[in-house]
Amino acid sequence: MGLTQLTVHEVVKKAVSGYFQLPAFQRPFVWSPDQVKELAVSLYSGYPIGTLLLWEPSDWAFPKGPSSAFPAHWIVDGQQRTTALCLLFGQRPNWWDDRDEPWDGLLRRNEVMAAINPVSRELDFALANPVRRRDPNWIPVRRILARETEESLQELVDDLVARPGSPQAARPGSLYAALHALWHRIRTQSIPVITVNHDVEDVVEIFTRLNRQGTQVREADVIVAVLGAAEPGWVRSELLVFLRELADRGFDLGPGILTRALIGMERGTARLMDGVRSGGQLPARGKEGTVEPFWGPPAVGVWPRFKEAVALTLRHLNDRGLLNAELLPSKNSLIPLFAFVGRFLAGSASGALDRRVFGRAFRWFLMANREGRYSGSAVTALSQDLARITRADNAQQALHALEETLEPWTPDPDDFLVDYRKDRFMRLLLYLTLFQRGAVDWVNGVRIGFERPGSLVSEGFEPDWHHIFPASFLRRSGIPEESINALANVTVLNERTNRYRLSRWPPSVYVRHFNIPNEHLESHLVDPGIVETGTRERVSVEAYEAFIRNRAERLAQAARQYLDSLARG
């Protein structure tokens, strides 16, 4: 980290030349014209305007334009002030895109003008309007600050006093003194500039802390900005298109997950920097002894094979009922799963073998989610497991190494008595267990996760969690709150059935009203005797506790059988 001082004039020059750049994760220019004017007042008064924080990504690959022989410094904190300074100078920053707003229009909307106060002989500042633009007393500040030398400033004074009817004609010396004071005070005021060259993860943390009440930058935003600089064509035509396709299928993952998985599949690490450092070269798969750029066109073997791995993974997940990434306790857990499939299953011709291998991999995947292995700041754990995958000679060896990192666990009835809102993994396990059993919607008889009888699984399907005994009914019956939301009192139905047909009635009413067959209840591991439990008005605490205990035991047994079947492939 380094601390330097730059004058306002130097800051503007660097923004105009492209030495300062704006990363894609920065929000648009949002300052009001009045804020731009107040910045001019502060600079003229000699007040400090804060520090600029720059990121110097010296280890990263950047394109070198014909007029640029240096890597850009990205503004992490201070882009609003820097853009406002460019407006005061009337000079367009290198990063400005007219597609957001034409620069000329922004300049006119934020035009600041100055006039000599007849009493103090100092300058007053105001925003331009039609009256001030016609008044010869008011001078656009950018006409003053844009002058590069004191001699050219004298030329401006001469031009102003030569205008017919100029109020300054009789005192050009006073006019020059006032304009020179503005020109010198603003252009030469120093701004502290802190430059960091930390890793992506640290830059994200810095930016987020600085903008705690504003834009919350994500690491994925930073990586897209970096890749957009390194390979803009690939990002637009491949990465972002593929991300949209995945989101349409219910897997809105973000670029961070995909890039980590892609790097991990080839390098055995989850550190994003390892994929975009300058000189990042990887052997192209199937080309012995040859080297291809890591971020390259579709002809390079890495990206097409990775896309195939992701598509194959999602097909396997869909087959097992995982139709939406929002069901997962941690989306990061998909990173090693994608890498595993890419290393050992993509391109395989043995569909039956793949399904067996993936079944065991899926069990490891679920257990890693249960332990929260990849939750939060999980780069270390991800890198360790990705290294295990890339070092293994085959899928079985890789799975053995991955499974050894996890604690043995089997579900018991108490696990299904937890609050369903507080344990995302157990909620997921409940759903997957019911899906594997072919559980059907109680009213329309369609299997959960399916659009209609006999149709394919509905991509993006998200379970709707249904209280078998409605919460409001249980509260009226005096059931303790911790028991009301027990997982054993929850099942999965489609949204329309849950919210518009069953949500208010006790099971003793809705089972008879909709003629729900016993086998539909059994598919959800609900004892058909539930119709005799309680009345329309209430249920006893003892009867309800007996119900959730019975169902918790049945759920635990079914979940154990489900996980065992995955372990056996």
Describe the model:
This protein is α+β, with helices and mostly antiparallel strands. 49% of the residues lie in helices and 9% in strands. It is built from 25 helices and twelve strands. The strands form four sheets. It has a five-stranded mixed β-sheet with strand order 1-8-3-4-2. It has a three-stranded antiparallel β-sheet with strand order 6-5-7. It has a two-stranded antiparallel ribbon with strand order 9-10. A hairpin with a 6-residue loop joins strand 5 and strand 6. Helix 2 packs across helix 8 and helix 17 packs antiparallel against helix 18. The protein is elongated and about 100 Å long. The two termini are 52 Å apart. About 7% of the residues have low confidence.
Helix content: 40-55%
Contiguous low-pLDDT stretches (5 residues minimum) are: 60-70, 212-217, 276-300
Main sheet specs: 5 strands, mixed
The proportion of residues in beta strands is: 5-15%
Rg on CA atoms, Å: 32 Å
Ends distance: 52 Å
Strand order of the largest sheet: 1-8-3-4-2
Label the structural class. Answer: alpha+beta
State the oligomer: single chain
What is the number of E strands? 12
* Mean pLDDT over the full residue set: 81
Report the principal-axis shape: elongated
Number of helices: 25
